[in-house]
Design goal:
The complex is a heterodimer. By secondary structure, chain A is an alpha/beta fold. Chain A folds into three domains: 163 residues, Ubiquitin-like (UB roll), CATH 3.10.20.600; 158 residues, 3-Layer(aba) Sandwich (Rossmann fold), CATH 3.40.50.11540; 69 residues, no CATH class. Chain A has 14 helices and 17 strands. In chain A, a hairpin with an 8-residue loop joins strand 5 and strand 6. In chain A, helix 1 crosses helix 4, helix 3 runs parallel beside helix 5 and helix 4 crosses helix 7. Chain A starts with 22 loop residues before the first strand and ends with a helix. Chain B is α+β, with helices and mostly antiparallel strands. Chain B has three domains: 56 residues, 3-methyladenine DNA Glycosylase II, Chain A, domain 3; 93 residues, Alpha-Beta Plaits (2-Layer Sandwich); 106 residues, Alpha-Beta Plaits (2-Layer Sandwich). A two-stranded antiparallel ribbon of chain B has the order 1-4. Chain B has a two-stranded antiparallel ribbon with strand order 2-3. Chain B has a two-stranded antiparallel ribbon with strand order 5-8. The longest helix of chain B is centred in the N-terminal third of the chain and has 27 residues. Chain B is elongated. Classes of the chains: A alpha/beta, B alpha+beta. At the A-B interface, strand 16 and helix 14 of A face helix 5 of B.
Chain lengths: 442, 316
């Protein structure tokens, strides 16, 4: 019996259409728009101005607080302008727009493919380098990685968990990274272990990726303290708390962070980025994303430069199918529909999903019949049907009491509801309001 | 027979004892309530809308009775009449507050503000607003899902299907502010009703730069400051690319309406409500292309003439 998390969960159709497609480099566009807010926390502060010449890897926006991240140029060329443009969040935000000219990298970046196994940097140097390189959680939540590596005083990390679950249907970017950059991921894991001063790391992989499990298990034999943990395929296993529950059987208390139970979770893509930052001096300016969809000609995985417009990557995958009803940034469960194909891809873009019209339309909402399906699938043990009503009636006290803040917004409740009720939409709204109230109280 | 008599007697005895106990308990725990609270509540309109800031008319009545000075209290539903009545009951001086009314500060109709995408989520403005910037290029304007209409307890609003915007029925609006609170984009504002319900306001809340705003919507305020310069009373301020007319300073001269290159400034009820759209479109149709100066000068003369007429009639 394979491990999985203790409560709730669903198993939507996997649809991993692009699993066999090797990662290709996306051509560099003529113009990139790099938003200064691609992470959770304070937006970075732009340090370039119109007309400045920049090179690949050059710092263009500086982290503006502890929970914030540096942003680097993904191309070489001249800054065309700083402007507010629509980004994948659906709001207009400040971006640095760069006109591309050639592809000139900063000299200190090691562009060779050679594997550097030897970790020279000390614990402090690693954390500094991760912060300098602007690395954020690449699973999609984009939480600055150096913050997670800085264990708060009084707490100790016991185990590092690498999230290689990729529980979102359709997405395959992490899967391909494991297959193609297995050694780099493992060295990255060791760097993270050194930074956290732990001697054990667990890489959790769902068993719908047997090739990745076999490949990494074989490679991991050469590395100390890294254990590969195959998991039963179950959504949302990629949630931090779910993954901790699945791999080490510990439950993170309500409102607490994983460090409370001695665990730190990092995504497998983040481990790869950490390897590149520490061993190759390469800041985070490119990442892998999956472009996929049932009607798409060529569902595939691409290494793209941050700031590339969404339409470029769609073009590379064979163009937009005629029956496209929605373009979702991220996976089908937690991703967000985009309002335009001109928005730039950012650090958080793990995939792009083109859904055909018949699959996208919302079905008519009917009355709740109290079947309790949402309660049984909720991985956090909440009562979504009740939270929705409280959010609609603006009963924020009750929402807070019923632990709405524990909701991880995985969407299992909305997915499973036979009455097609927009449970998560209302819960998210209530969560935002409760968060506001809690902040005001502090 | 005797059993029945005993039963009746016993019950009577219990009843009398209980009544005596209850009488003393009631005396002991008697709560004195100011009888004026009931009187004041009687005088209030019983709309329980919360427009005064208190939970219902009873709550407002309690606050009024408790207060030493009620000049800052106002019942938006009852207006000056009710407040002076309350003042008489409580023996306080009452300043007559200017009646206010809700106005929708967005004119982004389907025509003026073309849709760039289609929203398909839950039908709630707050949800849409938390998700993204809306179906059009304007991220400040009306989302058109009617949360304000739902919030209105007085049937004073409806969604105009043609324009996709909420409409306020002035006669029914009691200015309770429920719609103002409901709107996540803060489009609706309570403004002074003005003499004969005449008022001028900027029907736009777009804070984007002029070019961006104009691209998203034909009738957006582009922050050009023409109105600010034109206003003889310093009633207009432009902040964050958006003009705002201070209704306490505005003297309803309508000079700003004429100079606005995008027709973002609306005048209401000057010529009777229905005629207003007829008067404006001429300016609108001339405007788009190159003839900026023409627009500015040509219609200027006419309304100005009207202007003085209106003002005199105002004074009557």
């Amino acid at each position: 019996m394979l491990k999985t998390f203790s409560i709730g969960g669903i198993h939507p159709a996997e649809n991993k259409l692009s699993a066999e497609s090797a990662i290709q480099a996306l051509p560099i566009p003529q113009m990139v728009s790099i938003p200064i807010s691609q992470h959770i926390g304070a937006p970075a502060t732009a340090i370039v101005k119109k007309g400045d010449e920049v090179k690949v890897g050059q710092l263009i926006a500086k982290s503006s607080g502890f929970v914030s991240a540096n942003i680097h140029s993904s191309v070489s060329g001249a800054v065309f302008k700083l402007d507010d443009i629509m980004d994948a969040s659906g709001f207009r935000r400040t971006s640095i727009i760069i006109k591309v000219d050639g592809d000139e990298w900063l000299e200190h970046i090691d562009r060779s493919e050679e594997l550097v196994k030897d970790i020279k940097a000390s614990k402090e140097e690693i954390i500094k380098q991760v912060g300098d390189a602007g690395i954020v959680g690449l699973g999609g939540a984009t939480f600055p990685a150096h913050v997670k590596l800085s264990v708060p005083p009084g707490k100790t990390a016991e185990v590092l968990i690498i999230n290689a679950v990729e529980c979102e249907p359709y997405l395959t970017s992490d899967h391909r990274i494991m297959l193609e950059k297995g050694d780099e991921v493992l060295v990255g894991t060791q760097i993270l272990m050194k930074a956290l001063e732990v001697n054990k790391a667990i890489i959790g992989i769902e068993n719908n990726k047997p090739d990745a499990i076999a490949h990494l298990t074989k490679l991991a034999a050469n590395y100390n303290g890294i254990e590969i943990c195959p998991l039963k395929t179950q959504y949302p296993q990629g949630g931090e708390k779910q993954l901790i529950s699945a791999t080490i059987k510990r439950e993170v208390p309500s409102g607490a962070l994983p460090i409370e139970v001695g665990a730190v979770v990092q995504n497998v893509g983040t481990a790869y980025a950490v390897y590149e930052a520490v061993q190759k001096n390469k800041p985070l300016f490119e990442r892998v994303a999956t472009v996929t969809g049932k009607s798409l000609k060529n569902p595939s995985n691409w290494m793209f430069r941050i700031g590339t417009p969404v339409k470029d990557i769609i073009e590379a995958a064979g163009g937009m199918p005629e029956d496209t009803g929605k373009i979702v940034g991220g996976g089908p469960m937690m991703g967000k529909a985009l309002s335009s194909i001109d928005v730039p891809l950012t650090k958080g873009s793990s995939g792009l999903l083109l859904l055909p019209k018949e699959e996208t339309a919302r079905k008519a909402t009917k009355a709740c019949i109290r079947c309790g399906k949402c309660v049984s699938v909720c991985p956090m043990g909440l009562e979504p049907y009740l939270l929705m009503v409280c959010a609609d009636k603006k009963d924020y006290e009750r929402l807070e009491k019923d632990a709405v803040m524990d909701c991880i917004e995985c969407g299992s409740c909305s997915f499973t509801c036979p009455a097609h009720r927009p449970l998560l939409d209302y819960i998210r709204l209530g969560k935002g309001k409760v968060a506001q109230i809690m902040r005001a109280r502090k | 027979m005797s059993i029945i008599a005993i039963t009746i007697l016993a019950l009577c005895a219990i009843g009398v004892t209980a009544a005596i106990i209850l009488y003393f308990v009631a005396q002991k725990f008697k709560v004195y309530e100011d009888p004026r609270i009931d009187e004041v509540e009687e005088a209030l309109p019983a709309a329980n809308c919360g427009g005064c800031g208190y939970p219902g008319c009873r709550g407002f009545a309690e606050a009024l009775v408790k207060a030493d000075d009620i000049s800052n209290f106002n019942c938006p539903v009852g207006g000056a009449a009710v407040m002076s009545h309350v003042g008489a009951l409580l023996g306080h001086e009452v300043k007559a507050a200017d009646p206010t009314v809700a106005v929708v500060r967005c004119n982004g109709t389907c025509e003026n503000r073309p849709k760039t995408n289609q929203y398909d989520g839950a039908a709630s403005c707050s949800i849409a607003a938390s998700l993204y910037s809306g179906e059009t290029g304007c991220q400040h304007g009306c989302l058109g899902l009617g949360e304000c209409v739902e919030a209105c307890n007085f049937d004073a609003m409806y969604m105009d299907e043609e324009t996709g915007l909420p409409v306020i029925i002035e006669d029914k609006c009691v200015s309770c502010g429920a719609c103002v609170k409901a709107c996540p984009n803060n489009i609706i504002e309570l403004r002074k009703k003005g003499p004969k319900s005449r008022r001028i306001f900027v029907s736009c809340v777009n804070k984007d730069k002029g070019a961006v705003a104009k691209k998203a919507c034909n009738v957006a305020c582009i922050g050009c400051r023409k109105c600010e310069k034109e206003c003889p009373f310093d009633a207009i301020t432009v902040e964050n690319n958006l003009a705002y007319i201070d209704y306490n300073k505005c003297k309803l001269c309508r000079k700003c309406v004429v100079v606005c290159p995008t027709n973002a400034i609306h005048e209401l009820n000057f010529p009777p409500r229905k005629e207003k759209p007829a008067a404006k479109p001429d300016a609108k149709t001339v405007k788009p292309a190159t003839a900026k100066t023409e627009v500015k000068d040509a219609p200027k003369a006419e309304p100005k003439a009207n202007d003085s007429k209106e003002e005199t009639s105002d004074n009557k």
